[in-house]
């Protein structure tokens, strides 16, 4: 009887010990499992904060780009700005587009489920992790929509920019055409001036030659007239000399005749005297 009671006591103690071990193991399991869940929640929350900070940083960069776009899009068609200012506007739009593409690449690299679950692909996310993933998706979608809105504004601004650029290029072409026409007109005017100058020089030279010829002809005529006058004077002098010589001859002849008459008269007187004797 005593042995039977001892065996029963041992058996009951064994059952109690096994039960205690099982209960203890269950409690340890639940404690460990709960600790694991707490660590997952903390890790998920930590990753969420890091991701939200990254999204906030991207949002701030997007807002800075928006300010640059806003400063340009309102005065793209301002015709008073010079070419340097216009080129700067064109650069701002192109650079803003490039920066927005980089932000989209950063956003594309943010995968909410992968971020929260890390490299674990076996276990499904729990409700808390799904809430974290959903929150990141909402924030990410908000930033994406803001960037997409900027892309649409950029498309409108680029359309205006292309029209204004085409207008300015046409103005430059027109200005070059006018400058070319002005240069050709100036060249033609200079050519015409040169032609007129040469023509005037030719006419002046011909006029000088004509005047020189007329002066030479006049001098020759004057010389001929002077020579003729001199010849006339010489001829008059010669004729005067001849007249004087002729008069002298006549005087001599008359004197001779008078002398002969006197001699004849004297001879006649002598003859009469002789006859009277």
TrEMBL record:
Keywords: Membrane, Transmembrane, Transmembrane helix. It comes from the Eukaryota. The chain crosses the membrane at residues 12-32. Residues 179-209 are annotated as: Disordered. This is BAG domain-containing protein. It comes from Parasitella parasitica.
